[in-house]
Design brief:
Helices cover about 55% and strands about 0% of the residues. Helix 3 runs antiparallel to helix 4 and helix 4 packs antiparallel against helix 5. With about 130 residues, it is mostly helical.
């Protein structure tokens, strides 16, 4: 496809001809995904689609602002404490996340308001006991 467009030839038809000739030569036969539907074709257009697709394929995730990341971490800590094998394990998990919450309240974090206070360790441990 190094030839130049001939003078007087419609640009679009020149490209269409090159594509058709390449198809006839079989140059597109071994492309990955041939014959498969385009993924996410039915979803609304998102101008960041290619970035999101690349991040998914690489196993990456969008970074959250620090306050939202701490909120997520705190929720996950509660779930982890509920699954802990022992009362002391549940207590340790909640105390560790409480330390991070206190530090964030004391120093401040970037992002939307934290809206989070340390968990009541005794209440979490009581729920852990009740679920056993």
């Amino acid at each position: 496809m190094t030839e130049r467009k001939p003078l007087g030839t419609n640009f679009e038809s020149w490209i269409d001809r090159q594509i058709r000739e390449a198809e006839e030569r079989g140059e597109f036969d071994d492309l990955p995904g041939k014959g498969k539907p385009l993924p996410d074709l039915d979803k609304p257009y998102d101008e960041m689609w290619w970035i999101k697709q690349k991040m998914r394929s690489e196993g990456l995730s969008m970074p959250l602002p620090p306050t939202l990341a701490l909120r997520k971490e705190a929720e996950e800590a509660l779930e982890e404490a509920a699954r802990a094998r022992s009362e002391s394990g549940a207590r340790r998990i909640v105390e560790e996340v409480n330390d991070r919450i206190r530090e964030a309240i004391r120093t401040g974090l970037a992002g939307p308001p934290l809206n989070l206070v340390p968990y009541d360790v005794e209440k979490v441990v009581a729920r852990w006991r009740a679920s056993r």
